[in-house]
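User: Okay, second chain of the day. Same drill as before: sequence in, structure tokens out.
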Amino acid sequence: MTTNDVTEPRPAAAPDRTRPRGLLLLLLVANAAMLAVYMGVGSVLLPTQIAAIAPDDKVAVLGLIGGISSVFATACNPIAGALSDRSGRRSPWILGGALASLAGLAFLGGVDTALFVGIGWCLVQATMNVYQAAVTAIVPDRVPVAKRGTASALVGLGLPIGGTVGVLVASQTAGRLQTGYLLFGVIIAASAVLLTAFCRDVPRAAPAPAVPARTQLAAFLSALAHHDFRWAFTGRALMVLGYFSVIGYQLYILGDHIELPAGLTPPEAMAVLTPVTMVAMAVSTIVGGLLSDRWDRRKVFVGVSAALAGLVMVVPVVSPTWSGMIAFNALNGLAFGCFMAVDTALVTLVLPRAEDAARDMGVLNIANAGPQIVAPFVASAVVTAFGGYTPLFLVGGALSLVGALAILPIRGVR
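Assistant: Same drill. Structure tokens below.
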């Protein structure tokens, strides 16, 4: 899963007759289905499959496959977005990406070697990002500027809803991997059919012009040359790296590090913990956003939530128990949800130039996607080198704490 999903909207030649509420509901379903695949497959089914294939090397194999597949995801998202921009249509990319993902997931369910699992997951990541790039472009395409905040908040509920449903489905099918993979393929394909059937493409006046690679690189460098934006970018990257370095290995942590209650398997434990995390994340996203608006303070919310994310990494170290893990997931969800909500608002206030807002937000998305590529390599290296998950929690916590400190030098926002 990556988040480099900003695409430039094009002027519509005809008004959009889709009812706003219906459109947002369809987008919520489409995003929830996508995140169900990312969370259910990436957090449960894939680690379970790798553990069965390579039980002695599962940490290293998962890290390698996760890192390489993230490169495919990061590359395919902007390419697919640019191609859908130039074609002037979204539906073919949404439907094509979903159906290709269905095929990739079916392939994953039928292989039994690490090599083919890696190939299959790379295919799924690539095709899911084709779907993701086109789906996320619908908001700037179809939603008026004055209503995009509400639209983004509603669509953002796809994370707690989709994440929870995905892990629950995966936990029930972890013992029947082929069935689980096919079920997720059907979920994403059905959501694509629903969205493209009821949210048809609006004719475009003209395709968007291609942006040369040299121009994109120049834009990246010019945005990072801005003092406040550079520090916001750094804080986001460190926070995301610390978070995903630990969360990506939670199934193995539950099996190898935590004392679970008798009869509770790691996939079943994930089915309990994920709703705890997602509910906490949803609450802190809403509360943090509202309070930061009311008090007109951003840095304190971003800094405190990043620091909290770092400190709670100590909980599973000092209390490697089931109750300790519940507390960790609740606190971590509160911290990460508040951070992502308010940090996004903070970034909009430190963009170098208002007229380049979409472009520079796209640059910021590298701070989301890049650490997700690095995180599996970092996590597997730490666990392998130091022989356990305690060092992984400490490294993840340290990264989040440094991310909190990176917020302090920002001068243009209170």
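Confidence is low (pLDDT under 50) at residues 3-18.

User: Thanks, on to the next one.
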